[in-house]
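Dear H.,

Thanks for agreeing to be a second pair of eyes. The structure we're designing against is below in token form, covering all 82 positions.
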């Protein structure tokens, strides 16, 4: 099957050089690369950040008593809209 793909110039030059040195067509190099990529084992799930929480996870939310306006004033030091 024919298809068209865009390959970065440097990568294509390396693939062509590899094909020439191996004495195989570029198509064989591309097909082998695809086979290797598709036969690789599934990657483990992505990186997970360690839990560095502090305090009691069952404690109440200390910000619950504040309104958005109260929080804005605490964060920015001025009333909303200034």
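And this is the sequence the design step returned. I haven't edited it by hand at all.
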């Amino acid at each position: 099957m024919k298809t068209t793909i865009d390959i970065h110039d440097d990568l294509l030059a390396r693939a062509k050089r590899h094909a020439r040195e191996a004495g195989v067509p570029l198509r064989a190099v591309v097909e082998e690369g695809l086979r290797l990529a598709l036969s690789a084992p599934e990657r483990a799930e992505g990186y997970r950040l360690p839990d560095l929480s502090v305090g009691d996870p069952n404690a109440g939310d200390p910000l619950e008593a504040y309104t958005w306006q109260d929080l804005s004033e605490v964060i920015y030091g001025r009333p909303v809209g200034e």
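Two observations from my side: The chain has a mean pLDDT of 88. The chain is about 45% helix and 0% strand.

Warmly,
E.
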